Amino acid sequence: xxxxxxSIWVSxxxxxxxxxxxxxxxxxxxxxxxxxxxxxxxxxxxxARVYQRSFDLMTGERAWIVLIEGAEADCDAAIGRQTxxxxxxxxxxxxxxAGRHLLDAEGFA
Length: 109
Known about the structure:
five-stranded mixed sheet; 26% helix; 34% strand
């Protein structure tokens, strides 16, 4: 099964958020074809949560898991470490006071 290019996935994700008036910004543009994606959910109260996509080797399922959560500065530091390891990584920032990110919606795993 072919994987969807990262740039196409990012565009579709941003469009779906836009339809619900949820702000999403590309903080770091990664590799268009195969870059991993981190999604930072900023609840605009000094707190944040960073999601990364995980792959379960036993089931073959993909899921978004929390990489780190807490103070926004701590989340930003973790993102900085990840980008140091992977120069091809994408970083998206979703801003929503209600904490909506849609990563658990159908089609985004």
